[in-house]
């Protein structure tokens, strides 16, 4: 069974934007709904998962969305976060508004997926690349192979972020992580 690279990237690297995914075999038709949850997660040990990034309007503000450091100068996030006035990325911070334990780097360009669309809470191709002003000192997340050859249906992967830990809860102040199981497009 083939697993869509878009689904894996969103599951593994779009930290805090843990959404129910409608799997499609065509990566250009990736659809998700906007829900910021880390349900069933637990608090992450400080200093781990430092590739998880918080997107901010100000250097000292709270994260309003999250993403993942994928190279020293690029963050992968969700396009639906762009209206949130992304100006800074907090990298390696354990806390929602952390400034002491990570690094804050200015965003110099924002590139949405060219086929990003939204219809209510349903989104297609909900990916954005953020270029940073300077390289981060933190190690980027390890991405899956582009051809999906290193992915297996049923394998456990980790998502992390500051999302709500239950449907009616508040946003977590500390970085959370949760294990998820990869599913095939057919599932």
Indicate the proportion of strand residues: 25-35%
The fold-level CATH name is Thrombin, subunit H
Task: Write down the overall mean pLDDT.
Answer: 78
Give the SSE string: HEEEEEEEEEEEEE
Strands of the largest sheet, in order across it?
A: 4-5-6-11-8-7
Q: How widely separated are the two ends?
A: 10 Å
> In CATH's first tier, which class applies?
Mainly Beta
Bin the helical content.
Answer: under 10%
Gyration radius, rounded: 15 Å
**Biggest sheet descriptor:** 6 strands, antiparallel, barrel
CATH architecture: Beta Barrel
* Count of spatially separate domains: 1
| Contiguous helical run count | 1
Tally of DSSP β-strands: 13
Give the helix/strand class.
mainly beta
Taking pLDDT < 50 over at least 5 consecutive residues as the criterion, the unreliable ranges are: 1-35
- Overall 3D geometry? globular
In CATH, the homologous superfamily goes by the name: Trypsin-like serine proteases
Protein name: Peptidase S1 domain-containing protein
Keywords: Disulfide bond, Glycoprotein, Secreted, Signal, Virulence
InterPro entries: Peptidase_S1, Peptidase_S1_PA, Peptidase_S1_PA_chymotrypsin, Peptidase_S1A, Trypsin_dom
Signal peptide: 1-23
How would you concisely characterize the structure shown here?
By secondary structure, the chain is mostly beta strands. The protein has one helix at about 5-15, and strands spanning about 20, 30-35, 40-45, 50-55, 65-70, 75, 90, 105-110, 115-120, 120-125, 130, 155-160, 175-180.
């Amino acid at each position: 069974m083939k697993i869509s690279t878009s689904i894996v990237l969103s599951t593994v690297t779009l930290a805090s934007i843990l959404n129910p995914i409608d799997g499609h075999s065509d990566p250009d038709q990736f659809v998700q709904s906007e829900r910021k949850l880390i349900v069933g997660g637990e608090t992450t040990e400080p200093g781990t998962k430092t590739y998880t990034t918080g997107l901010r309007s100000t250097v000292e503000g709270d994260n309003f969305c999250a993403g993942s450091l994928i190279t020293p100068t690029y963050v992968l996030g969700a396009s639906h976060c762009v209206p949130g006035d992304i100006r800074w990325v907090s990298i390696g911070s354990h806390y929602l508004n952390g400034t002491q334990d990570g690094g804050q780097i200015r965003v110099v360009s924002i590139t949405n997926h060219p086929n990003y669309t939204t219809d209510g809470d349903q989104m297609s191709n909900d990916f954005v690349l953020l270029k940073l002003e300077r390289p981060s000192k933190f190690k980027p997340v390890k991405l899956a192979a582009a051809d999906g050859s290193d992915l297996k249906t049923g394998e456990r992967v980790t998502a992390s972020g500051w999302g709500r830990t239950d449907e009616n809860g508040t946003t977590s102040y500390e970085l959370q992580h949760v294990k998820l199981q990869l599913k095939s497009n057919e599932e």
